[in-house]
Amino acid sequence: MNQDLYQFALRLADTSLTMGQRLAEWCGHGPYLEEDVALTNVSLDLIGHAQMFYQLACDNSETSTSPDDLAFLRDVPEYRNPLITELPRGDFAYTTLKQYFIDVYHLHLYQQLSVSSDEQLAALAQKALMEVKYHLSRSEAWCQRLSLSTEEAHEKMQKALDDLWFYTPELFETDESMQRLMTASVIPDMGAIQTVWQQQTEQLLEDCQLAKPENGWMATGGLVGEHTEHLGYMLADMQFLQRAYPGCEW
Amino acid sequence: MYSQGLKDAEGQLEPAELMAEFQARIDREEKIEPRDWMPEAYRKTLIRQMSQHAHSEIVGQLPEGNWITRAPSLKRKMILLAKVQDEAGHGLYIYSATETLGVTRDQLTDELLTGKAKYSSIFNYPTPSWADIGAVGWLVDGAAIMNQVPLCRSSYGPYARSMIRICKEESFHQRQGYEIMTVLARGTAAQKDMAQRALNRFWWPALMMFGPSDKDSKHSEQSMKWKIKRFTNDELRQKFIDATVPQAEHLGLTIPDPELRWNEETGQYDHGEINWQEFIDVIKGNGPCNKERLQARINAHEEGEWVREAAEVYQQKQNQEEAA
Ligand SMILES: [Fe+2]
Ligand SMILES: [Fe+2]
């Protein structure tokens, strides 16, 4: 069970870290100063969540490790995030829609995790949930603002949707390890989460007059460490100092 | 009422009675508020100084932002993100304070992006190593504090008030920067070397942050009289040197100035000549990163154009719906 929880904690942490890392790329480059500050806030929250869940992973690890070791010393095949979170930053529409999809996912996932049979996990999820609610209200408002304003913005949102949509089913994938946790009520039924996720996002897409794409390549692989080409570059950048100067304090 | 016109520094004709009353208020340490009468030159000087300050906060995000994705630990990453975010916040406060003088943020942004307005020369230097993030916090935020603490008593109310809030955060940044340097200086030989190189890079540019030497500073005298400035450039620079040299010694790092030595008589450090030609070059746009920094701001502005437009159109549509 510890090993299962370790793996699941990594899934949560890697998802938040890769999201936060991409968002951080906006710092100093946002469309408004106010947005710069807001995006950085969300990025900070997500990296904070990652640290929390890495700590949970450490507490359930068979070997002695630290949140920094997990973040900075694992390579691509060991990362457990769904592919969508490692995709490049893209333009503001792409960032916004991706953020919205993840925010809705986090909302429902953390809501359920906050009643987990594992008390530590429940407490962490509760803490993250507070911040996720704020992230969602922001990304949802931006989806509407961008989709229901100018033609150019609407087009960019539609393009973002076409590019991102088929990365979303992967969010709800499970493996044997997760299924054991589901049976033990440590984590919720991911199928049920998917149902509410779909209802909520499809309603917003309809409100935003955005059309779901009909077909595309269906992303998969994060749970078994099969990633896009982008993650390697992200890690090369993020892990540079730890790799170039091993064993140092910073 | 007839009053003899007095030409002020900007060549503007101002009524003598008003000028005298204005100066008297300043001499009494009263704060000047946005609705109060003020000489045109006072307004212009403040707009120039405050907008330069705001621009510096914004451009200042870039050299450090450069290391956010590569920060060596989760804790350092979060501290750096929060710091760079603080700088954006400082820019926001100061732009708002500047707007009380009758300019818009759009105008000010335009002046920055067209190269008409200046920002602090320090942000045109590169941050090629992680230690530069330490050096920037320690030296650049340190120098900013020296400059800004007296501004908390600036005669212009909105500027003084924004500075009080900002200074608290700057001293936090300075401590964090020094802490990065401490860890590096106590680390491996490679880390210590990284720290020394960063100090070498940033020492002289940090001294230049205080502006030209008093004998060459064209704005100083009037600004002192109006209490927009409280100390001269050279006084502030000296304070900074005196505060910083012992900190470098504590780190076991060497300040890259062979002429630096303690002067028993003056109770201050004597230092070598600053390369003012370099300062002038960087101000004029020929520093190592001028083009990059400005281009980064221009790109952000241009790439964000459609977003700002969309937000505006959306707001109009909402307003129309509400009205209907
Ligand atoms: Fe600042
Ligand atoms: Fe600062």
UniProtKB/TrEMBL annotation, chain A:
Pfam families noted in UniProt: PaaA_PaaC
Enzyme class: oxidoreductase
Domain of life where this protein originates: Bacteria
Alphabetical keyword list: Oxidoreductase
Known EC number: 1.14.13.149
InterPro entries for this protein: Aromatic_CoA_ox/epox, Ferritin-like, Ferritin-like_SF, PaaA_PaaC, PaaC
Single GO MF descriptor: phenylacetyl-CoA 1,2-epoxidase activity
Protein name per Swiss-Prot or TrEMBL: 1,2-phenylacetyl-CoA epoxidase subunit PaaC
Origin species: Marinicella sediminis
From TrEMBL, chain B:
Pfam family, one: PaaA_PaaC
InterPro entries in the cross-refs: Aromatic_CoA_ox/epox, Ferritin-like, Ferritin-like_SF, PaaA, PaaA_PaaC
Lineage: Bacteria, Pseudomonadati, Pseudomonadota, Gammaproteobacteria, Lysobacterales
Gene3D superfamilies hit by this protein: 1.20.1260.10
Identification of the protein by name: 1,2-phenylacetyl-CoA epoxidase subunit PaaA
Species, as recorded: Marinicella sediminis
